[in-house]
Amino acid sequence: MNTVTIVLLVILAVLLIAVVVLYFLGKKAQKKQSEQQEQIDAMKQTISMLIIDKKRMKLKDAGLPQVVIEQTPKLLRGSKLPVVKAKVGPQIMTLICEESIFDAVPVKKEVKAVVSGIYITGVKGLHGKPVVVEQKKKSKFKQLVEKAQEKAGAKPIK
Predict the structure, then answer these.
(1) 144, 148, 149, 153 alpha-carbon torsion, rounded to 10°
(2) How many CB atoms lie within 10 A of CB 63?
(3) pLDDT tens, position by position, 9-40
(4) What is the pLDDT of residues 32-60, one digit of tens each?
(5) Where are the chain's structural domains?
(6) Which CATH class is domain 44-125?
(7) Helix spans in the chain (H)
(8) What span, in angstroms and rounded, lies between the C-alpha atoms of 36 and 96?
Protein backbone atom coordinates (compact mmCIF):
# COMPACT_ATOMS: atom_id res chain seq x y z
CA MET A 1 0.00 0.00 0.00
CA ASN A 2 1.19 3.44 -0.74
CA THR A 3 1.37 6.21 1.87
CA VAL A 4 -1.61 8.19 0.51
CA THR A 5 -3.95 5.25 1.07
CA ILE A 6 -2.63 4.70 4.60
CA VAL A 7 -3.06 8.38 5.48
CA LEU A 8 -6.63 8.41 4.12
CA LEU A 9 -7.53 5.26 6.09
CA VAL A 10 -6.15 6.76 9.31
CA ILE A 11 -8.09 10.00 8.75
CA LEU A 12 -11.25 7.99 8.01
CA ALA A 13 -10.80 5.95 11.20
CA VAL A 14 -10.29 9.09 13.32
CA LEU A 15 -13.39 10.71 11.81
CA LEU A 16 -15.44 7.58 12.41
CA ILE A 17 -14.36 7.45 16.06
CA ALA A 18 -15.16 11.17 16.48
CA VAL A 19 -18.68 10.68 15.05
CA VAL A 20 -19.38 7.76 17.38
CA VAL A 21 -18.14 9.70 20.43
CA LEU A 22 -20.22 12.76 19.49
CA TYR A 23 -23.30 10.56 19.01
CA PHE A 24 -23.08 9.13 22.52
CA LEU A 25 -22.26 12.52 24.08
CA GLY A 26 -25.29 14.01 22.29
CA LYS A 27 -27.59 11.29 23.59
CA LYS A 28 -26.29 11.83 27.12
CA ALA A 29 -26.75 15.63 26.89
CA GLN A 30 -30.26 15.23 25.45
CA LYS A 31 -31.25 12.92 28.32
CA LYS A 32 -29.84 15.36 30.88
CA GLN A 33 -31.69 18.28 29.25
CA SER A 34 -35.02 16.42 29.27
CA GLU A 35 -34.59 15.66 33.00
CA GLN A 36 -33.90 19.33 33.69
CA GLN A 37 -36.99 20.34 31.67
CA GLU A 38 -39.11 17.93 33.76
CA GLN A 39 -37.81 19.55 36.95
CA ILE A 40 -38.58 23.03 35.60
CA ASP A 41 -42.12 21.97 34.64
CA ALA A 42 -42.69 20.42 38.08
CA MET A 43 -41.65 23.60 39.92
CA LYS A 44 -43.32 26.25 37.74
CA GLN A 45 -45.84 28.71 39.13
CA THR A 46 -47.57 31.83 37.80
CA ILE A 47 -46.60 35.10 39.47
CA SER A 48 -47.70 38.68 38.83
CA MET A 49 -44.69 40.98 38.56
CA LEU A 50 -43.65 44.43 37.37
CA ILE A 51 -40.74 44.25 34.93
CA ILE A 52 -38.25 46.99 35.77
CA ASP A 53 -35.40 46.24 33.36
CA LYS A 54 -34.08 43.56 31.05
CA LYS A 55 -30.55 43.08 29.69
CA ARG A 56 -28.17 40.49 28.36
CA MET A 57 -25.27 40.43 30.78
CA LYS A 58 -22.59 38.16 32.17
CA LEU A 59 -23.60 35.86 35.00
CA LYS A 60 -21.12 37.33 37.48
CA ASP A 61 -22.31 40.90 36.72
CA ALA A 62 -26.05 40.08 36.91
CA GLY A 63 -26.40 40.38 40.68
CA LEU A 64 -27.60 36.82 41.17
CA PRO A 65 -27.06 35.04 44.50
CA GLN A 66 -23.57 33.66 45.09
CA VAL A 67 -24.94 30.10 45.32
CA VAL A 68 -26.19 30.32 41.72
CA ILE A 69 -22.83 31.56 40.46
CA GLU A 70 -20.96 28.79 42.30
CA GLN A 71 -23.22 26.06 40.88
CA THR A 72 -22.74 27.05 37.24
CA PRO A 73 -19.85 25.54 35.28
CA LYS A 74 -16.77 27.75 35.08
CA LEU A 75 -16.96 27.99 31.28
CA LEU A 76 -20.49 29.44 31.41
CA ARG A 77 -19.78 32.10 34.04
CA GLY A 78 -18.38 34.48 31.45
CA SER A 79 -21.14 33.97 28.88
CA LYS A 80 -23.97 36.48 28.53
CA LEU A 81 -27.50 35.47 29.36
CA PRO A 82 -30.88 37.25 29.43
CA VAL A 83 -31.49 38.79 32.85
CA VAL A 84 -34.72 40.46 34.01
CA LYS A 85 -34.99 42.73 37.04
CA ALA A 86 -38.57 42.61 38.35
CA LYS A 87 -40.60 43.69 41.36
CA VAL A 88 -42.43 40.68 42.77
CA GLY A 89 -44.67 41.89 45.57
CA PRO A 90 -42.61 44.24 47.73
CA GLN A 91 -39.32 42.63 46.71
CA ILE A 92 -37.06 43.46 43.74
CA MET A 93 -35.58 40.29 42.27
CA THR A 94 -33.09 39.45 39.54
CA LEU A 95 -34.34 36.56 37.40
CA ILE A 96 -32.93 34.65 34.44
CA CYS A 97 -35.20 34.62 31.39
CA GLU A 98 -35.56 31.95 28.74
CA GLU A 99 -33.85 33.06 25.53
CA SER A 100 -36.87 32.31 23.33
CA ILE A 101 -39.20 34.69 25.22
CA PHE A 102 -36.69 37.42 26.14
CA ASP A 103 -37.77 39.72 23.30
CA ALA A 104 -41.45 39.33 24.28
CA VAL A 105 -40.88 40.57 27.84
CA PRO A 106 -42.16 44.17 28.07
CA VAL A 107 -40.23 46.71 30.14
CA LYS A 108 -42.00 48.84 32.78
CA LYS A 109 -45.24 46.86 32.54
CA GLU A 110 -46.97 44.43 34.86
CA VAL A 111 -47.19 40.86 33.56
CA LYS A 112 -48.10 37.39 34.69
CA ALA A 113 -44.98 35.28 34.35
CA VAL A 114 -44.49 31.54 34.62
CA VAL A 115 -41.52 31.18 36.95
CA SER A 116 -39.56 28.14 38.08
CA GLY A 117 -37.16 29.16 40.84
CA ILE A 118 -35.23 32.11 39.37
CA TYR A 119 -35.98 31.09 35.78
CA ILE A 120 -38.78 32.80 33.77
CA THR A 121 -40.25 30.36 31.24
CA GLY A 122 -43.32 32.25 30.00
CA VAL A 123 -44.88 35.72 29.96
CA LYS A 124 -48.46 36.91 29.44
CA GLY A 125 -50.05 40.33 29.80
CA LEU A 126 -51.68 41.19 33.13
CA HIS A 127 -55.15 40.06 32.03
CA GLY A 128 -54.08 36.89 30.20
CA LYS A 129 -53.44 38.65 26.90
CA PRO A 130 -50.28 37.65 25.05
CA VAL A 131 -47.64 40.37 25.05
CA VAL A 132 -47.27 42.10 21.68
CA VAL A 133 -43.69 42.81 20.67
CA GLU A 134 -43.23 46.06 18.80
CA GLN A 135 -41.11 45.70 15.67
CA LYS A 136 -38.25 48.15 15.41
CA LYS A 137 -38.25 50.37 12.35
CA LYS A 138 -35.67 49.21 9.81
CA SER A 139 -33.08 51.55 8.42
CA LYS A 140 -33.14 52.57 4.75
CA PHE A 141 -30.07 50.42 4.07
CA LYS A 142 -31.70 47.28 5.50
CA GLN A 143 -34.87 47.96 3.50
CA LEU A 144 -32.82 48.25 0.29
CA VAL A 145 -30.94 45.03 1.08
CA GLU A 146 -34.22 43.16 1.65
CA LYS A 147 -35.67 44.46 -1.63
CA ALA A 148 -32.54 43.36 -3.48
CA GLN A 149 -32.72 39.91 -1.89
CA GLU A 150 -36.39 39.55 -2.86
CA LYS A 151 -35.64 40.50 -6.46
CA ALA A 152 -32.70 38.11 -6.58
CA GLY A 153 -34.85 35.29 -5.21
CA ALA A 154 -32.91 34.87 -1.97
CA LYS A 155 -35.96 35.74 0.16
CA PRO A 156 -39.64 34.97 -0.46
CA ILE A 157 -41.78 37.90 -1.59
CA LYS A 158 -44.19 39.21 1.04
Answers:
(1) 150
(2) 11
(3) 999 999 999 999 999 999 999 999 999 889 98
(4) 999 988 998 888 999 999 999 999 998 88
(5) 1-42, 44-125
(6) mainly beta
(7) 3-43, 66-71, 140-152
(8) 15
